[in-house]
What does this fold into?
Amino acid sequence: MASNSPLMAIDPRPSTISPLDSPCGHYQPQLLLLAPETGDDAHSRTLAAHFLELGVPIELTEDWLLPTQPPRDLNRYRACLFPQSSKPRYDRDLDAFARDGGFVCEYKYYAEERQVPALDIPFFHSFGRDVYCYTLVQDYLLGGLTLNDPDFLATLRRRSHASLLNLYRHLIAESDAAQTGPLPNWGDRVYTRACADAVLARLTGDPFWQRTSRRFLERLRDSVEQVFVDSPQGNINPRLMGGVQTKHTSSHNPAMMGALLMREGRRLQEPGFTRAGIEIGKTFVRMSRVENDVVSQQRFRGCPVSEAMCGVDLLCWLASATGEVSYCKMAEATFRRTVEPCQSEEGLWHHIVYPDRRAAFWSRATHWPVLWGTHALEALPGDSSLAEQLRDRLQRTFAALERHQDPKRGLWHLVINEPETRLESSATAGLVYSHDRLRELGVLDDRFVPMIERAFEGLKTVYYGGGLGASCRGTAFGVPEYYRTRPVGWYEHSLFPGALAGRLRKA
Amino acid sequence: MNMQTTTKAVQATSRSASEVPIDSPRGHYQPQVLLLAPETGDDAHSRSLASHFLELGVPIELTDDWLLPSAPPRDLNQYRVCLFPQSSKPRYDRDLNAFARDGGHLVQTKYYPDAAQVPSVDISHFIAYGRDVYLYGLAQSCTEHGLTLNDPAFLATLQRRPNTSMLANYQRRVTELDAVQTGPLPSWGDRVFTRAWTDIALARHTRDPFWDSTSRQYLERLRESIEQFIVRSPDGTIPSRYLGVNLADTSSPNPAMMGMLLMQRGRQLGDSKLIEAGIQAGMAYERLSRIERGIFYPPSCSEKMWGVGAFAWLAALTNEAAHLRSAEAMFRSVMAPCQHGEGLWAHSVTADGRRSALWSRGTQWPVLVMTHTLEALPADSPLAEQMRGCLERTYAALERHQDRQRGLWHLVMNEPDTRLESSATATLTYCHDRLRELGVLDNRYTPMIERAFQGLKTVYYAGGLGATCRGTAFGTPEYYRTRPMGWYDSGTLFPATLGPRLS
It folds into this structure.
């Protein structure tokens, strides 16, 4: 879609017209996609995500959600897509609709999440779901649906920020109500959630976010302390390591959690967070391969990977929190070993650099070093040489991003320099968030503000149910074809709510 | 991988074709990955992993039977990477720990899940999609440890495999499949069509009674299903599992495919029962289709060529001129919008003129249908002449887009950045063979087709083909570029191409 699109600047209306509390009446829905009667499930959210990615005008309720029953006559739509559970109620209506020329896909209904049994293989079902639902959605284009419908996109961009935040708040409140005690998992989703909530707490001053953010960090701290209760040597449960089952190797998870706890510990003046961050950070270093002060994961066997910037962030915070110079040296060496091969001349980042080839410019391969570089700057003295180099590399990255932003939707692509790949939101959200932090830190001037505001507007067009559509699923390292074909779907955790925080008053 | 093309592999290809076939792959290349099948033998997951490694040209250990081993044939430290099924954990966990300690590479999850760990789900393609994508990721994770892509010795070894050994593999697979199924075929569709023509081609080329009886039995089962669900259907409705469609009053190409197959084979065998069943299926297709202003809907997709084939065969066997007019009208409504100026085929063209990508099977289907339809038409008819022109243009275009290193075509044929795709390559090879027999093509494309055949041998595994695109809807260009791929068993025409290449 994007590759075929005529170059068209983003509709400027949303920034000048007053925000909308409801989408109803502002565009002409062409498709009636019903959620199950009991409300959205993973499949209906994924379908909504794919239609939003394509810019197909789907019917939305006043709450910007999928309806659970038809709000008007079916013959007002070009196409209908209902869940399997609605068959007893609507089968005749759908037959009549199809007879009258309306479009219904060959399967007639979509399968619901509850038809898929739980499975203890990470990503297996979510891959199946992403691809299955994407196929269904594509089939609906036969129904003559409009791609990138201008009125629909303008409506989504005019959505009030308070309404976007309320939905996220609702999602978080629901998810936290069901979970207490030490966090059961670590990883990028914990990291982004904690970062988003912390910014919301800081910028809104809302007691809800202050409480929520602190509680989440406490649960993270408890899970770190539990590691050392369970194993005085600090052997980390594979679950917390993101499913790593191999011995003597780490994942990024302890580094992420360590840096996060130290940073928030300092901000909140909470020594317990800082202590836990130091402990788990040191464990990460112990489990890593350290050669000439370069800290890397054993499994990469010395290949530079852009995600090693996570270690740089951690080492900067360890140096700052412990005052130990050795961490500073490690941070500098790891930074050099990562940035030189991984960041291209233009400024984008390769995911991994093998001895004989470089991986694609996968979207998150650029987003992660920018995010961790941004957070590392907070730990460094402003006049340090590493801080200076980091500022330069981050500037270069944003300059490169200017050349590759999708002109129609404002997002970046799954492989950033390949416009024929799908739109990808998680990196776009991370880049907007990082830009905002870098503006606060005085690292960036207003040069990139128009680009970032276009990106933010673009993110609003794929926001659904408190999460983001068009988010790439977890990704290994691989050949260019691998990155180009990653499944994309709906994710509840991204840095988009963090990006909202600074824009609440503008809306 | 595909972008780093060199002429080296092409040279290796032509060299290997002239080299003596080898009965066993062992000793002819250096395996870098030990991928174990479960102890009970290959399952869907191990086959899918094998498929991904073959597509990448990564040298995996193979047994004398060209299959994955189910136990390590030598010390683990002879490999760079080990990837074992979860079920092997009790037996090999310590060995794998020692292997990793000594610098060998394991994926982070250490094992891959056995297919038995995944419960079946009654949602079309859901599990296959999950499997394809999940295991492609695992295979990619293995490449972190500096595996060689498109390893020349490994590819040359695969190309030297005797064609008879591949056929034996396929024969075993078919025997296994047929042993568990009797009675009317439980579904119709392109896999039935390709399986049937594969067996027929093998019966003709090998003169082996096994293939003759297998192909006859298979057609008989198809005929019985037509008899049961079309001829004896009181109200003319066909169960949705045969149409692959849950909508009332709607067809799919399935009855057209089945009708074409039965009519053509019935005429070849002089079997009036097959012909009658074929006519019934063709008529059912017409009855269930939506016709507006003489045009069958949806207006423009290359797969609508199935209808052209069904009507041409109906015309040939019923002598009704109306059917020929339908065939001609449908042909015009497909060819004009769908065949790209260069000769390849768009999968669909929307009402507002938006052409979909040149998906590999978007070109394969019209070529296959036209090849089988030519036999129904008088050689001097205008429709036959137009078809020959279309086919010639298609093969000329294919010359420009064949992957130079591997000989296959790509998932989107004119986009070399997309993955290699085997099902269309197999069909285009099969059709070329048939068109040569019919005298439609001369030997201009033979070198290209032989490179394609050699390429197919590098992704052949356990009776099926790796690098095969899963079922696909119509969609945006991004959709086609990102289709999942994996291992398919009896759904391709590759075994049919073995027939003329056995000697």
In short: Chain A is about 50% helix and 5% strand.
